[in-house]
TrEMBL record:
This is PhoH family protein. The keyword Lipid biosynthesis does not apply. Keywords: ATP-binding, Nucleotide-binding. It comes from the Bacteria.
Amino acid sequence: MTNESKRLFILDTNVLMHDPMALFNFEEHDVFISMTVLEELDAGKKGMSEVSRNVRETNRLIDQIISDASFEDIKAGLPIERIHPNPGQDSLHLGKLFFETEPLFATLPDSLPSHKADNHILQTGLALKEKYSNRNVTLVTKDINMRIKSSTVGLHSEDYYNDRVLEDADLLYTGWEYLEANFFEKHGNTMKSWQEGSRTFYELNIDDNCKWYPNQGLISQNDAGFNAIVREVHNGKAILEYMQDFENPNHSIWGIAARNSEQNIALNYLMDPDIDFVSLLGIAGTGKTLLTLAAALEQTLDQNLYTEIIMTRATIPVGEDIGFLPGTEEEKMTPWMGALMDNLEVLTESDGYTDWEKESTQQLLSKRIKIKSMNFMRGRTFQKKFIILDEAQNLTPKQMKTLITRAGEGTKVVCLGNIGQIDSPYLSETTTGLTYVVDRFKDWTHSAHITLQQGERSRLAEYASDNL
């Protein structure tokens, strides 16, 4: 460790448990792994959870780096470039990986018990700080309490930022925006319009300051009522399509009409067969599940675009076993699917029908709606299915990728969630898989996203949301 310009990052166990590729994300700087971290990785390698899989992947990567190296090589630091995470690319010019090859001692306050693993890591960090006083030594940990303790003993610490999709959740793409009040006065003379069947399109010139994305919703602020969807953006031109009006009761979907402009945009996305992936964000009561189920039933039972509806959600603990209680997969998942059952009751309420007719409807729906556990999704391929991922804010980016890549030909995937209500202890608004897919899919012409903000549950729920 002679290069004083390079920083030395000490990795906490939770960083490697969260992201095995963290070893390659510190550019030219050096990485240090203590013996305590190796012990904790060894203790966490068993099991079928996401964390256990990440630990095993971390161990494999470290084994590849350390392979065929002598003790003297390990002591001098092993180039992380010994294995290349992205074959085919140029050299990454990464730093070196160091291990605790000799005892490192430093004095900790008497209030910190010496038998705790976290305090051993702090002790190692302080010893490295004293040994390499000319280098910037930093502890990297996702544990907030660990960062607090690190600061109190004089060791610089940082969160692991590489997994963050955005710096701030407020910067997340909302999927819609208001048109300026003088939109028609500004573009009316140069705007071209044409029809293709029942669809109406417009083409207009845009400047470099216009940041529209494919399938973004545009809402008029004046009486013109011009609500449109951006279909294409290229070469200084944008093609807009006039939005279908699902707020009109005559255009309702399974008896459900949009109650506001945001819900109208969402139904346009959900009912569009050219959009393969839809993400709906919003607080409780904005209508995410109800709108999605209505669109799914319409396209599955009435239009026969899909053969069946598949619903799944992250159970807490995230992705863990659903238990050994008697019953089928669907019966075990039923307690987690209260939102599905509540919304199905709304959609199947029909005045004037007998109990026998209502029961027949329920039996029909039970054959076309399947409830699946996330645990058994790996390796499957779903053809011509309408897949609904509920509570998607509790999924990691890796889990989200695993689920979405299950989609076969003719399948539509809809992700529902509220990033302000994350139950997983390992995720935040900026690191959840839902934020990840919203940001990564926004440029794709076959995906759409909208953040619903207006609650439509009841006046009691609205008052409680505003005042409690």
